[in-house]
């Protein structure tokens, strides 16, 4: 922690050129994206395993505090992607490093050019939700904000559990190696075949991730943002209409239509999301490993905790996210989400639709046409 504070302080004091700031921004945006990835994979899996929790998670993301965060997330993804491509090109063409300052400026300009129409499209969804539809009553805004924060508390407990597991793994490894208290003087990572593999993987996976993540951002944040996945409309990338199964459209039904959509006998978006999950998780948490080990190199045990933490969380995300994508999805998950949807209407001060009230009262089975 002392090393991290020292780095931040000296970075501000050094006032280096654009190359230094692009390095700092690349790390900050990478860490930000990884943190969101952990939340996103777990809560999306709830659409299959715990539909009521997924409805509440989406409601939290539709709150003001997360609306601001969504814009920051998109900036982080776009900048990190473009700057990553710059790094890959310079790594394979070292003679170009003399142009790194100009390239860093070009990356920032390109990021702003791309984000201008993207942010405009996202802002349109925000305006419609808050000011046209008045989806949240003015006197309920703070209630929704508090709700959105409380809904994320389980992730804190999950992180603590992962940290405990990482400490145990690091302790076991240290006992096996017998060097738990050894000096870190000779313990810096060496250029092993494994590290060379991960170096190459980070560059190759980064190139593969860019088109995948840009398609995902376009569909899920621009064409149809987080506010639209609870609305009655055609689900982007499919021929299905949200709201044809349950009493009212829900976020769970949106996921159901997306993940059950087939083209030429292939579950297109399940396959797409599976590739994205694997590549982004491995790339993101290996990158986080680089960052954490940089700031824990003074102590081999703490460094091993950092590596173990990245390994544990990455493995959990791959297992949970992979299971939600590979398991069959039943229509029952839509009906299970409707009671939670009614709670969200009440929280926001909205009138519960008559069809949903009838369903909850048992006068309607909530089923609709396919």
How would you describe this protein?
The chain has 370 residues and is an all-alpha fold. The protein has one domain: 3 helical TM bundles of succinate and fumarate reductases, CATH 1.20.1300. The chain is globular. The relative contact order is 0.13. It contains 13 helices and two strands; from the N terminus they run αααααααααββαααα.
The counted number of beta strands is: 2
Share of residues in helices: over 70%
Class by helix and strand content? mainly alpha
Q: Per CATH, what is the topology?
A: 3 helical TM bundles of succinate and fumarate reductases
Distance between the termini: 55 Å
Quick one: CATH class? Mainly Alpha
Whole-angstrom Rg: 23 Å
| Major sheet description | 2 strands, antiparallel
The total tally of domains equals 1
Task: Give the strand content.
Answer: under 5%
Order of helices and strands: HHHHHHHHHEEHHHH
Q: Stretches where pLDDT falls below 50 for ≥5 residues? A: 181-186, 366-370
Shape: globular
The largest beta-sheet arranges its strands as 1-2
H/I helix tally: 13
Proper CATH architecture = Up-down Bundle
């Amino acid at each position: 922690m002392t090393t991290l504070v020292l780095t931040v302080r000296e970075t501000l004091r050094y006032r280096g050129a654009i190359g230094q700031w692009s390095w700092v921004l690349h790390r900050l945006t990478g860490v930000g994206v990884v943190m969101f990835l952990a939340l996103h994979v777990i809560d999306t899996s709830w659409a299959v395993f715990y539909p009521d929790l997924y409805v509440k998670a989406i409601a939290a993301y539709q709150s003001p505090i997360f609306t601001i965060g969504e814009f920051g997330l998109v900036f982080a993804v776009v900048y990190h992607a473009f700057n990553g491509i710059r790094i890959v090109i310079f790594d394979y063409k070292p003679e170009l490093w003399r142009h790194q300052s100009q390239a860093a400026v070009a990356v920032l300009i390109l990021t702003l050019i791309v984000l201008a129409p993207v942010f405009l499209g996202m802002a349109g969804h925000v305006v419609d939700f808050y000011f046209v539809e008045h989806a949240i009553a003015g006197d309920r805004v703070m209630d929704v904000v508090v709700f959105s924060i409380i809904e994320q508390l389980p992730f804190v407990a999950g992180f603590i559990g992962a940290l405990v597991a990482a400490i145990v793994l690091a302790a076991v490894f240290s006992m096996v190696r017998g060097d738990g208290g050894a000096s870190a003087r000779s313990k810096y990572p060496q250029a092993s075949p494994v590290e060379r593999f991960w170096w190459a993987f980070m560059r190759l996976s980064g190139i593969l991730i860019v088109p995948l993540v840009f398609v995902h951002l376009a569909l899920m944040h621009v064409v149809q943002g987080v506010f639209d996945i609870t609305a009655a409309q055609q689900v982007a990338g499919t021929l299905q209409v949200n709201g044809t199964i349950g009493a009212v459209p829900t976020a769970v039904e949106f996921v159901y239509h997306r993940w059950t959509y087939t083209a030429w006998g292939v579950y297109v978006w399940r396959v797409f999301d599976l590739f994205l999950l694997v590549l982004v998780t491995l790339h993101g948490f290996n990158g986080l490993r680089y960052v954490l080990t940089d700031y824990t190199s003074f102590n081999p045990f703490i460094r091993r905790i950092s590596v173990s933490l990245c390994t544990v969380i990455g493995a959990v995300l791959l297992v949970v996210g992979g299971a939600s994508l590979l398991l069959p999805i039943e229509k029952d998950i839509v009906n299970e989400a409707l009671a939670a949807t009614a709670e969200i209407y009440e929280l926001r001060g909205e009138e519960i639709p008559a069809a949903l009230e009838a369903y909850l009262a048992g006068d309607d089975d909530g089923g609709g046409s396919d």
